[in-house]
């Protein structure tokens, strides 16, 4: 029975990637065409939402989004989700209704096919380069000033101790304060369980329900650089508390160092 269960998991895992790849290849020419003009980027965003829904629908992953308060369609936000799985990227596109750009690590430019989104529309940052980091944060600030929300995973990468959080970086909170835009924390409760990052557990992926909580925006009006650490800690504690109280909390993994 265990062997059959393991085989079923491998088949489902293979289907997940195959479904995502084939559907993306069908949409690829449209994405390429829309990415040639900045004014068409919002249509790329909408099409990514369609693609994300197809991936989840075709692979049996359901989702439930809880909004703690309404979001203003005309307001730019700094979106700060926890990062425990590659499903987080797919589900951020679904859970957050406003048009936004992702900000991610420079290595994403080397990802075949998917790198098209980070060549023009989304933002990459090389944290080992002061010059590159400055350009990336300036671009993010400019987007926010234009009314475009920015999504950044404050942990910068998927921690080995998921679902526990690793330390948050200051970057997104400093940008939010500089631009005086609200921060929207997002908690993914189940993604680490449905789609583990650990390569040795890749056949542990499974269909199921992903619960998502889009927290009430945290205002930054009047805050200064001296408040960056406090804001970062407030968002960290909120997400970790939510995971501990409502998530599939695996205490065997312990806390991140």
Primary descriptors:
8 helices; alpha/beta; 257 residues; seven-stranded mixed sheet; single chain; globular; Glycerol-3-phosphate (1)-acyltransferase
Description:
With 257 residues, the protein is α/β, with parallel strands linked by helices. The chain has a single domain, classed as Glycerol-3-phosphate (1)-acyltransferase (3-Layer(aba) Sandwich). Helix content is 44%, strand content 14%. It has 8 helices and 7 strands, in the order H-H-E-E-H-E-H-E-H-E-H-E-H-E-H. It has a 7-stranded mixed beta sheet, sandwiched between helices. The longest helix has 33 residues, at 2-34.
Known CATH architecture: 3-Layer(aba) Sandwich
State the CATH topology: Glycerol-3-phosphate (1)-acyltransferase
The radius of gyration over CA amounts to: 18 Å
Number of helices: 8
List the helices and strands and how they pair.
Blueprint: H1 2-34, H2 41-59, E1 61-67, E2 78-81, H3 87-95, E3 100-105, H4 116-119, E4 123-125, H5 130-145, E5 149-152, H6 171-179, E6 183-188, H7 191-194, E7 208-214, H8 228-246
Parallel strand pairs: 1-7, 2-5, 2-6, 3-4, 3-5
Antiparallel strand pairs: 6-7
Helix pairs in contact: 1-2, 2-3, 5-6
Brief sketch in words of this structure:
This protein is of the alpha/beta class and 257 residues long. It has helices at residues 2-34, 41-59, 87-95, 116-119, 130-145, 171-179, 191-194, 228-246; strands at residues 61-67, 78-81, 100-105, 123-125, 149-152, 183-188, 208-214.
């Amino acid at each position: 029975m265990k062997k059959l269960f393991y085989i079923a998991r491998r088949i489902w895992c293979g289907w997940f990637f195959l479904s995502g790849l084939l559907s993306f290849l069908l949409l690829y020419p449209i994405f390429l065409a829309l990415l040639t003009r900045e004014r068409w980027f919002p249509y790329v965003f909408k099409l990514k939402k369609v693609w994300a829904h197809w991936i989840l629908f075709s692979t049996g992953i359901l989702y439930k989004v809880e909004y703690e308060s309404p979001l203003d369609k005309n307001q730019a936000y700094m979106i700060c989700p926890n990062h425990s799985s590659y499903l987080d990227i797919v589900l951020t596109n679904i859970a957050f209704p406003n048009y936004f750009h992702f900000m991610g690590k420079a290595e994403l430019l080397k990802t075949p096919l998917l790198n098209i989104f980070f060549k023009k529309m989304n933002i990459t940052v090389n944290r080992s380069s002061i010059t590159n980091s400055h350009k990336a944060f300036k671009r993010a600030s400019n987007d926010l000033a234009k009314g475009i929300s920015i999504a950044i995973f404050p942990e910068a990468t998927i921690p080995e101790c998921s679902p526990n959080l690793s330390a948050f970086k200051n970057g997104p909170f400093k940008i939010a304060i500089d631009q005086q835009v609200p921060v929207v924390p997002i908690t993914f409760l189940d993604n680490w369980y449905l789609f583990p990052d650990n390569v040795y557990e890749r056949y542990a992926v499974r269909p199921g329900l992903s619960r998502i909580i889009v927290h009430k925006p945290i205002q930054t009006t009047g805050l200064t650089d001296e408040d960056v650490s406090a804001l970062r800690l407030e968002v960290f504690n909120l997400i970790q508390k939510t995971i501990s109280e409502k998530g599939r909390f695996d205490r065997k993994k312990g806390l991140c160092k």
